[in-house]
Design a protein that fits this description.
Porin, about 525 residues, 18-stranded antiparallel barrel, two-stranded antiparallel sheet, globular, mainly beta
């Protein structure tokens, strides 16, 4: 039965391509020109053009925030993190169709150029080797190992019926084989379901319709800023979506997105995903140029969050949390910078919430040196609880963060943490990128414990009085083999520190993952 499920998603992609007579084969890949890096001028259709609608404010290419390794391992030189932001209207000109699969990207519907269907998809098998997961407290065999194979298959259709009406739908299948203890809830297994299904109603004004207001109700992915608080969870097997109502405004230099949403729970069977009845997310997110800084931009946002079943080291209770944040970022090459600051307040149980985070990242590109090294440093601090016996709570909540926050192993999450994170990227030609980095972790508060990426407490704050949690070096290599295929391999180690040694088990972690990401 499992083998039948395993091949269901592959059959979906196969049927979609064979029905149009464009089944991709290796010989076709050899005809595709090399990928063009974002710093170069691309071929006319080497990558999607910007969406004609007001896009959700998102990170610049090669973002320096959470999940950057997962981004490197996805073919985002050619495609976009949010597939609905891709715009293939330029392919109405047959001379710009340079790839065998371009026939799928612009399927005309009638005589009008702005009425067309665009198809796309993803297949990503991934192997994981994990020794001593969660420092030895998670299920494993007699050698401390827990290995698995996870698979992701996605297929989407983007229907444009003129400049003001659009439908977008995406199917998702995810499978897991071999994990001791069974698949991880919400992130591993979903046999078949609607991952996205939304409608765009657009009102345009100004010169050549440069300003627009878009109403977008339905199931959809959302990603804001550098993915620190709201992200699609690219690093996990199953991505994250929301049942939401959104209004997207593009007016002059302003992009403003207002929304109300509930996260979708990925369930293992067919068409059984549903909005989480206990959790809600709403807010306003705005992006505007910041002229006082070189290539400066600023994000200003408010996010409201409710969880009726929240759990912290302090205990369980209802949570109503408000986040006010700003992000200042730019790429005045060869420098890049990404600075983000968030204050949180609200109620947890019978107490008040007062929490915060500060995240700083800078990077310098040595493009004239061999291998074009790119060196950066991240320094993140997220507050922890000051007194577990008090009803008040100071633990920062990252809400819906990237699925690969510090590295692809995800041993801990960004709560009650101080993280110093140097990173070095090397580029071997246009197709191979390697990343070597090292995270150093300390507890921000000695009264609070550490948490998983999902927010679950994994070690208590006491009895240890140690601050040092440990360090985690990793090495990642990504090969963009063709326009459609990327191969990633990553190794992560975690050296446990005094805090974990005083809150055993405290075994060092070794983690290896390899995936092949095929996108069209």
């Amino acid at each position: 039965m499992r083998s039948g499920r395993t091949h269901l998603g592959a059959c979906i992609l196969l049927a979609a391509t064979t029905s149009l007579g464009v089944l991709p084969v290796p010989r076709s890949f050899a005809q595709v020109p090399p990928l063009v890096r974002s710093s170069s001028v691309p071929e006319p259709v080497a990558r999607p053009e910007g969406s004609t609608d007001a896009p959700a404010p998102s990170a610049p290419p090669g973002r320096m925030g959470p999940g950057s390794q997962a981004i490197e391992g996805s073919n985002l030189e050619t495609y976009k993190l949010l597939r609905y932001d891709e715009d293939y209207s330029a392919l109405k000109d047959p001379s710009r169709r340079t790839d065998p699969l371009d026939v799928l990207k612009y399927i005309p519907l009638g005589d009008r150029d702005d009425r067309y269907l665009s198809l796309g998809g993803t297949a990503r098998p991934r192997f994981e080797f994990n020794q001593n997961p969660f420092f030895g407290s998670a299920p494993s065999n007699s050698h401390g190992n827990n290995n698995d194979l996870v698979q992701r298959y996605m297929l989407h259709g983007d229907l444009h019926l003129g400049p003001n009406l659009r439908f977008f739908g995406q199917l998702q299948s995810g499978f897991e084989t071999g994990l001791i203890g069974g698949p991880r809830p919400d992130v591993d297994v979903d046999r078949f379901d609607a991952h996205q299904a939304f409608l765009d109603l657009v009102r345009r004004w100004g010169e050549e319709g440069s300003n627009s207001l878009t109403l977008r109700p339905g199931r959809q992915e959302m990603s804001y800023g550098s993915g620190r608080l709201v992200d699609v969870r690219e690093g996990a097997n199953l991505r994250r979506s929301f049942d939401a109502a959104r209004m997207l405004l593009k007016a002059g230099d302003w992009q403003v997105d207002g929304f109300w949403s509930k996260p979708v729970r990925n369930r293992p069977d067919v068409f059984d995903n549903d909005p989480n009845p206990h959790v809600s997310l709403w807010g306003v997110y705005a992006v505007h140029p910041l002229a006082v800084l070189p290539d400066g931009h600023t994000d200003l946002y408010y996010l409201g969050f409710e969880n009726k079943q929240a759990t912290y080291n302090q205990g369980k209770g209802g949570e109503l949390r408000h986040s006010l944040g700003t992000r200042i970022w730019g790429r005045p090459m060869p420098w890049e910078y990404n600075l983000e600051y968030v204050a949180q307040f609200g109620r947890f149980g019978s107490g008040d919430i007062q929490a915060w985070t500060a995240a700083n990242a800078v990077r310098y590109n040595f493009d004239k040196l061999p291998l074009r090294p790119r060196f950066g440093v991240r320094f993140d601090v997220a507050s922890g609880d000051r007194n577990p016996r008090s009803p008040n709570l100071q633990t920062f909540n990252p809400l819906f963060p990237s699925g690969a926050y510090f590295n692809l192993a995800n041993p801990i999450g960004p709560q009650n943490i101080i993280d110093l994170h140097p990173v070095l990227d090397l580029r071997f030609g246009e197709k191979v990128t390697t990343t070597a980095d090292w995270n150093f972790f300390w507890r921000e508060s000695l009264e609070d414990g550490i948490y998983s990426l999902s927010g679950a407490p994994i070690r208590p704050g006491t009895p240890s009085r140690a601050r040092y949690v440990g360090s985690s070096p990793s090495f990642t290599a990504a090969w963009k083999a063709t326009r459609h295929i990327t191969v990633l391999a990553s190794y992560v180690h975690f050296f446990t520190g005094q805090y974990l040694e005083e809150n055993p088990p405290a075994k060092d972690i070794d983690y290896v993952t390899v995936w092949l990401d095929y996108m069209f």
